[in-house]
Structure formats: structure tokens, C-alpha cells
Amino acid sequence: MALLSKEASRALVQGVNRLVGLPNGLPPPGPEPAPRRRSRAPGTRSAEHVDLAVIGAGPAGSAAALVAARAGLKVLLLERGEYPGAKNVSGAAFYGSAIMDELIPRWWEQAPVERYLSRRVLAFMSPETSVALDFRSARFAEPPYNGFAILRPKFDRWLAEQAVAAGAFLLNAAVVDDVLWEDGRVAGVRVRREGGDVRADVVIACDGANSFIAKKAGLQREFHAHEISLGVKEVLALDEATIRERFQLSGNEGLAIEYIGSITEEVSGGAFLYTNRDTLSLGVIGQISSLASHKRRPYELLEQFKAHPAVAPLVRGGAVREYSAHIIPEAGWNMLPRLSTGGLMVAGDAAALCFVAGLYLEGINYAILSGIAAAESAIAAHHEQDFSAASLARYEERLKARHVLADFRRYRHAPAMVNSERLQNLYPAVIADGAEQLFRVRGDPKQKLVPIALEALRRHKVSPIDLLQDVVNAGRSFGW
């Protein structure tokens, strides 16, 4: 089943188009109707009261619900979609299998995984050529594996089922319109249903990149257009034998390819292709501000991506099974919100914990880690019966202990470097041009690498000052 129909996904894209100034847009998606903040008198309760309410049954929310339910807390897991995963979209690559192994030993033997990822390719593109760094490791093909290709509707539903099996209660099609306040702290949520107020000692917001709850609670500011990107993805059906032969795979081995350069033309962004068991996940991601300034639509870039000479042979014969669109928080450390307040914590994409740093395209692992840390903080608060801001502030300490915040701080300069004009649109062409000159045989004298590189830089009008500045920035972003 498709996550969204192509028409519904295009409506989402059109909503962003209107946001960034493109014509024929629809209003951007968001919670409705306009929520109201409501306070209750101390000591009053609705008919429902839980120890922990988790908003969103994605990886962060389900991991939090699972850990808390195992500890004996009364947990309510609220999912906006018809089922967990119905509204969650990703490129379907999950790195950090060892993290899940600690939560559910040998989880891959029961989870709906597609292929283990033992090979990863980074491709630099010009309009006609491609230069790729191809990494393959036999160690990544051994348990607990390094990563898996997954399909989020299947994976998210399975992980939510683990939380339910541990004792959490899952409520689907539950739209949370507001948080409830009491004595200056969050004391529950308002769900769009009859008698919808749900009282909770602690709320964990895992409601996605544009977290309504985090903003409603005053933890997250409005995003700038350069901090978020819009991704559009297709899942193409191909038979398993064709995928193995075409991508030179054996058994359940899988491949992840990330593209940068002219694949998105002048738009800052990139593209990806992941092999599933009998499908391919592929898509393009474009920075909202760049899409706006160049008046480009992501689904048009997706069609051009599929037609590129280096990509077309890989997707040939694939039938579209699914089409979806999603916004992605990409500014890293600089857009992290306040992570907690009295009675409330934010986790996963709601906390902007999406790690997009060029060499790394990760999010599900950080979502799960943050969900675990938030649940542990809720458990400790429950044992002490202290749900104050000071008590839940220990959530941040747990994120530090799991190296989540350290990763984002260490690579805080990377998003700006990755989305810079020269890295996006100039250097991939220089690399491709240099490689073409290196391997072209005309009968002329052979050139060494430095003269070839210098000539490619000259042809593309890269000044020595700009090059030096970019080397320094790259070193600061990735080197030291």
C-alpha cells in the first residue's frame, strides 16, 4: 500500500510551493482547527489518566513506549495515521542496527527488514558523467549488521506492535490538538475525539519534523526556509532476481547510493537510491529556500534524476508502487529546540534530530536513541513523583551519555558546508571533469593528477581564494 497517493503527495508539495512562492500551491499542511491552551484547576482529572502519553508512533515514539511499558508505566501511544507508519516517510535506510539489538536482541530475525546494507556509494554528478566512491565491507554483512534497507510502513507498524506487546496502549487515528497545562507544566493532551482530554504525568512529543506540540509548548521556534528540505520519493517494483543482477548483489545483501551535484541541477540538495528485496526506494531532496529561489518543483527534479544516464539503467523497467513527500529538518545543531519543560520532552524529528552531514544521512537511529532516553527520564521522574522541568532536564544528560548531542555539536558546521553553492553545484562538476580527462585516451602525452586537477579548476573558474576557503571549511566541518 502506498503511503500517500501521488495526488495527495503532490498536494503536500504544492503546499510547500505556496510557502516558498511557487504558483498553484495549496495551504501548507498543519494541524487544524486552531488549538486552544487550556488549564485545569489543581487536583481535577479527566476520565483518562496515564503515566506517559507518547505522541507519534514512529521509531522515537514506539521506542519510548516500549521502554516505558517494560518498566511498568501505564503508557498511551497516540498515532495520527490509520496505523503506525502511515504518515512516516524516509529513504528507508536504517543505520545503527546495534542500537536496536540492545532494545530487542536479534531484532532483524523478526522485523520486516528488506536487505542488510553492506555496500555504500557516494556519487558526484555532472549532467553527463558520474564519479563514485564505492565502499563495501564484509564486516557489515555480519550480525548485528551496520544497517538495513527498510520500508517504513512495515517497520513502524512492527515496532509499535513490540510496544503494545510490552503493555502500551496504541490509539490510531488520534489527532492531538493541544497540550493541557497545570501549575505551569504540561499535564496531558487534548485529543480530537469525544471526551478527548487525556491526563498524563509526562508527555513525549514525537510528532515529526514540524512538531506542532514542541511549538505549542514554546520549545521550538519557527523554522527558516534554509533549515528544512522537501523530499519526494518513489518506490519502484522490480523482481528480486533483476535487483541482484543489476546491482551485483548476493543473497540479502543491499546497496545504498547517495548522489550530489547536477542531479538536482542548481537546487541545493541531493538524491538517493536504496535496494529493497523486490523494490527500489529512490528520491530527491531539495532545500526549501533553494527550491523557492530557483522556482523548481521537487517531483520534476525526481523525473530528471531518473532520466540521468547514470541512473536510468538502474531503474529501467521499474513500476511505481508508492509516491510520497516529506519535510526534513537539516540544519542540525543550529535548529535543535529546547528538549524539555515541566511534564514534556521532545524526541526524534520533533527534536530536529535528523543528522544530515554529507557523509552521514541518518535519522532513525537518533530517533530511537532519543526515544529510549526520554522514556528512561520519564521512568525516573515517575519513581520520584517529580515531573518538574528540573526533573525532566535529565533527559538532556541521557542524550549526552548516548553521544547524540555530541554528534550534532561536533558536526554543527557541516550542514552549511554541504549546502554551499560550490559544494553542491561546482565541485561535483570539477571532479567529474577531472576524472573524464584522466581516463580519456587521445594519443596525447599522459598528464599527472595535479595538472589535471588544476586545469579542471581553471575551466570551472574556481579561484584559489575560494578553494582555500572551502578546504578550511571542509576541514572544520569534517576533518577536525
Can you tell me about this structure?
This protein is of the alpha/beta class and 480 residues long. It has 3 domains: 31-112 and 151-223 and 332-410, FAD/NAD(P)-binding domain (3-Layer(bba) Sandwich); 114-147 and 224-330, D-Amino Acid Oxidase, Chain A, domain 2; 414-479, no CATH class. The chain is globular, with a radius of gyration of 23 Å. It is built from 18 helices and 20 strands. The strands form 3 sheets. Strands 1, 2, 3, 8, 9, 10, 11, 17 and 18 form a 9-stranded mixed beta sheet that branches. Strands 4, 5, 6, 7, 12, 13, 14, 15 and 16 form a 9-stranded mixed beta sheet that branches.
Secondary-structure blueprint of this entry?
Blueprint: H1 6-20, E1 38-39, E2 48-55, H2 59-70, E3 75-78, E4 93-95, H3 97-103, E5 113-125, E6 130-136, E7 147-150, H4 152-165, E8 169-171, E9 176-182, E10 185-191, E11 197-205, H5 212-216, E12 228-237, H6 240-246, E13 253-261, E14 269-275, E15 279-287, H7 288-294, H8 298-307, H9 312-315, E16 319-329, E17 340-341, E18 344-346, E19 355-356, E20 361-362, H10 364-384, H11 389-392, H12 394-401, H13 404-410, H14 414-418, H15 421-425, H16 427-439, H17 449-459, H18 464-479
Helix pairs in contact: 2-4, 2-10, 10-12, 16-17
